[in-house]
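note to self: dont lose this again. the chain is below, predicted strucutre after it. 271 aa total, dont forget to put it in the shared folder this time
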Amino acid sequence: MRAWRETVAGRLPPAGRAVLAGVPGLCAVAALALCTVGVEHAAEEAGHRTAAVVPAAHRAARPPIVPRAKWLGDTGETGPPVRYGGPVVAVFVHHTDSPNGYDCADAPRIIRALAAGQTGARLFDDIGYNFLVDRCGTIYEGRAGGVDRPVVGAHTQGFNHRTAGIAALGTFTAGTPVPRPMTEAIAALTAWKLGLADVDPRLRAQLVSSNSLSRFPVGTRAEFDAVAGHTDGYTTSCPGAALRAELPAIRERAARLQGRTQERAQAARPR
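---
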């Protein structure tokens, strides 16, 4: 069991690195890792001390979410034990670094392939993302554990606790159009998920790094936009320059869906 924990923490043996290098979808696989249980629990406890969570006053409507059974299919798998953290105070947006010209009806097959790439080498016990969104704006449940619960994912090295990973199906490098239904769905999902802890999507959140393979040494208290890009926490080009450029508009749209006003955001913004 100790060897498995070290592997998912990012301390990969040479053979494991070779496997990851050959798996399609760089962003979908290469940097998705959980930390050791002890380190993550310590970071979670520290995170609880840095950000008080108040009863939600700005809850947005829950958007339609396709359950994971719809894309997982009848595999007979029971799934791994689920791990939960503290309330979700930020989301990290990703792209899956996969082709864009897919038929949306084929999204379940694409998600199965992504999950297989992440779990086939036995480095992950489940798909890393908490949610996935296709180009038509359909939202899929990713990692098991319940969409309304703070499931610890494997999406952003060092910052999987108290966050949710939302992956856009496709590759959104500079100059690539980002479908409007996709950004609208990400905004709706963000508004609902952050609203469960009364988090304003336009503000910032403090998180504690649980892994020195992130941009921040283990134990460092880092501040992020409540709707951040994968690259903010880990050295990567994910979620692509085009999708990253959409994040300010996604934050504003999510805040409106929560019923917030610009004046409230300015008054509440940390100094």
